[in-house]
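User: Sequence recovery, please. Input:
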C-alpha cells in the first residue's frame, strides 16, 4: 500500500465518521422534539447560521462568499446582542 492510498482511506473514514455523527445529532434532535424535550426557541437559535447561510448562498450563488457573509452576519448579531445586553444592564429594562 502506498502512503497516498492510506491517506485517502483515512480521509474518507474521517468524513464517514463526521457524517454519522451529524446524522445521529439530527436523529437525536428530532426525537427530542417528538418527546417534547426541546424548546422551539433553542432550535431557532441554533438554526440561525444555517438560515443566514442559505439566504446568502441564494443571493451570491457562491459557497465561499456565502460562508464569509454568514460569518460576518453572525459577528454583527453577536455585537448587537452584546450592545443590547450592556444597555439593558445599564438602564435596567
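Assistant: Recovered sequence (93 residues):
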Amino acid at each position: 500500500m502506498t502512503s497516498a492510498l492510506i491517506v485517502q482511506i483515512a480521509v474518507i473514514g474521517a468524513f464517514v465518521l463526521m457524517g454519522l455523527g451529524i446524522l445521529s445529532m439530527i436523529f437525536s434532535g428530532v426525537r427530542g422534539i417528538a418527546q417534547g424535550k426541546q424548546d422551539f426557541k433553542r432550535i431557532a437559535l441554533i438554526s440561525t447560521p444555517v438560515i443566514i447561510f442559505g439566504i446568502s448562498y441564494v443571493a451570491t450563488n457562491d459557497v465561499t462568499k456565502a460562508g464569509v457573509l454568514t460569518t460576518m452576519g453572525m459577528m454583527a448579531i453577536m455585537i448587537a446582542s452584546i450592545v443590547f445586553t450592556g444597555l439593558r444592564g445599564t438602564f435596567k429594562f
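The chain has four helices and no strands.
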